[in-house]
Amino acid sequence: MSNIQIPQSMLPEDGRFGSGPTKIREAQMQALNDAFPSVIGTSHRQSPVKLIVASLREGLPQFFSLPDGYEIALGNGGASAFWEIACANLISRKAACGVYGSFTKKFAKSIETAPFLEKPAIFECEPGDYRLPEFTEYADSYCWAHNETSTGVAAPVQRVEGSERQNALTIIDATSGAGALPIDISQTDAYYFSPQKAFGAEGGLWVSVLSPAAIERAYHIEESASLPGAARWIPPFLSLTSALENSRKNQTLNTPALATLILMDNQVKYLNEQGGLQWATERCKRSASILYRWAEQSEYASPFVTNPEARSNAVVTVDLDESVSDNAVLAALRDNGIVDVNSYRKLGRNQLRIGVFPSVEPSDVRALTECIDYVVEHL
To answer: Where is the region Disordered (predicted)?
Structure first.
């Protein structure tokens, strides 16, 4: 116990500021309650659950303003599983990767260790900024993250110049960027994410927005992999074509967590009712701006990402002065009901990391800054 008692009047109404899993709204929990017993505990192959998947596959195209021919696919395993799906189904031979944090590095590592792919071209920088892949001869896929969750860095999403001449795919890890950052989906071929960030659900599911080119590539690779003597193996669980065909039937290949589907469907409806992607991104930007202004004016805190153009409006990282222990601040905040503002463990910095996804109230973000100031003053 920290023995620091923050005055009740200063506390945010909701103290959840995690970078994933994130805050779940009360209305989403009510949707779960309403789904018992008609959905929860029933078969995912029957109409009550399939109607929820259908609702998701209608709501997400509206939210992202999908171009003609783009499709929504869902599958089991979370976005980490999609790294392996991309290796098995989307990258034909060689990828070029932008690496600027833990999760971009993990995807690049998956590509590097795939025995049927060439070593990827790696374009890397130190955590705290981004590095996009550059035009690479013989590359058929360009891969990076819209938002690097580990560092609070947001990167632009646009096709690499010259990649169209290669018929190369643009594959974007959008796990903590989707729904919180602006995006022109036409600049991507696979924009994939998990629902436990901006979409306020639980983990265990991946969602991908697929272009016609990505769909064609997946079918071509799977057909080639089935030929006698083919070097590539696509495990059934990682088959993108199977996931897509099941999605078209409004189901997933394997049994999903029904609660995740219900929570996400409710959130997508809520976001569309509020004004869609534009509303969501403007709200996240407002919350992030509160934190960046506070950190810039603070005597003991500063934004970790020094380049304003690279600062995320989904996940905000703030360095603390050496005289202020992040562990002490975190303990005091948690004792007062403010949780999950700890830094990414592998980054190893004296730092706070704050999720400002659409469900988070900007007024609560302002209250958080005042609570941090109070704690530091009383340490």
So the answer is: 1-20
